[in-house]
Write a structure and sequence with these properties.
The chain is an alpha+beta fold and 372 residues long. An eight-stranded mixed β-sheet has the order 6-7-5-15-16-17-14-18, sandwiched between helices. It has a six-stranded mixed β-sheet with strand order 9-2-1-13-20-19, with helices on one face. Strands 3-8-4 form a three-stranded antiparallel β-sheet. The C terminus is likely disordered.
């Protein structure tokens, strides 16, 4: 029985726990200092910008494609196991194109995606008027529609992953913090091996450790003398309600324009959000109410119906972006033969959670990272 500990229970940590729980003879423990999805996952809109992204090769696209395909089986799988409902918008992403956007670049992406079985539809101003008559601006030249991209409620998804993993025998320690890693030299090389986690509530014997703690990964790796610098990037959003749906009631995709997302929630409710940075002189990020108003005004420019919206909630949260390292960080922690990192997904934690989990599973199956 291999003993695996996962530190962090956002959507990535929960996805790893669930995928590992499908492997026989693993004893899996998840340690989370708060509650599920209480960190960066709770600061996400759950927009899966996969096929519509400009990533075309290498790890960046492979992770996206893997996640999109896994989500199509994962959601019904989790709902069947847990009986929980996971809200998914399967009407795709509708991205506005404005004067100055490179239409040729989008056409090349459309052709590239077509060869791999992904649909992208490119339309002109008339297409925008027909599909989304509520989107109007003199500088709109058209839109790209990605019907196979999705939007998922990240908190309900995480809770379903936790519930399903629990059914499969995973132990979750919420309200518990890691206070120390007890290590010893590995037998076959000069690397170290972690053998025990000392938490605020317990001592846990481990053979393999996975750090998936988002912004909390930096202090954890610092205590292991291998600091991974991860910077918080602030995201803000407004939840609002309208008297009638935006555009056609039977066509409610996620709309994105100028890096602003309008996310349908049903019952004439929507999220309006973007990832923005407000660094202070000390490098900290803070929520600025004026920036929320600016966000709303920028969205009204291309979606005038938002002028009549009633704001029901404002929200802010921080996403983990690595410094000097491509996001996300997936792989072995330098100097250790049995500690993996699966963290710092920046704006794509929900999108890349399934693929990240599958990569970790493969690493464990191959036993290339854990030879003690």
């Amino acid at each position: 029985m291999s003993k695996i500990a996962i530190i962090g229970c956002g959507v990535v940590g929960a996805a790893i726990a669930y995928e590992l729980s499908l492997i026989p003879d693993l004893q899996i423990t998840v340690i989370e200092k708060n509650t599920p999805a209480s960190g960066s996952t709770g600061a996400a809109l759950g927009v899966l910008m996969g096929a519509i992204s400009h990533k075309k090769k290498g790890r960046a696209w492979r992770l996206r494609a893997t996640s999109l395909k896994r989500y199509e089986t994962l959601i019904p799988e989790l709902e069947a196991i847990t009986g929980l409902d996971i809200p998914v918008n399967r009407q795709g992403i509708f991205k506005l194109l404005f004067a100055g956007d490179n239409l040729d670049k989008w056409q090349k992406l459309q052709e590239f995606r077509k060869h791999e079985g992904w649909d992208l539809i490119i339309g002109d101003r008339d297409y925008v008027s027909q599909q989304c008559p509520h989107l109007v601006h003199e500088k709109i030249i058209g839109a790209v529609y990605s019907p196979q991209d999705r939007q998922i409620d990240p908190v309900k998804l995480t809770n379903a992953l936790v519930a399903a993993a629990t059914v499969n025998g995973v132990k979750f320690h919420f309200g518990s913090t890691v206070e120390n890693f007890l290590t010893q030299p590995a037998k076959e090389n000069e690397q170290l091996s972690c053998r025990q986690l000392v938490t605020s509530t317990d001592k846990i014997e481990v053979e393999q450790v996975i750090i998936s703690a988002g912004l909390g990964s930096t202090p954890l790796t610092r205590s292991l003398h291998q600091t991974i610098p991860i910077r918080p990037v602030l995201g803000q959003a407004i939840k609002f309600k309208l008297d009638s749906p935006l555009g056609h009631p039977n066509f409610q995709p996620v709309v994105t324009g100028n890096d602003i997302h309008i996310v349908p929630l049903g019952n004439q409710e929507y999220w309006l959000g973007a990832t923005v940075e407000f660094p202070t002189e000390s490098g900290a990020s803070f929520a600025n109410p004026k920036s929320l108003e600016q966000l709303k005004q920028e969205a009204i420019v291309f979606c005038p119906q938002l002028k009549t919206a009633t704001i029901s909630k404002t929200w802010s949260g921080k996403r983990p972006r690595p410094e000097g390292i491509p996001a996300p960080i997936i792989g072995k922690l330098s100097g250790y033969n049995n500690i993996l990192l699966a963290t710092a997904h920046y704006r794509n934690g929900v999108l890349l959670a399934p693929a990240t989990a599958l990569e970790i599973v493969q690493m464990i199956k191959n036993e290339t990272c854990f030879k003690s």
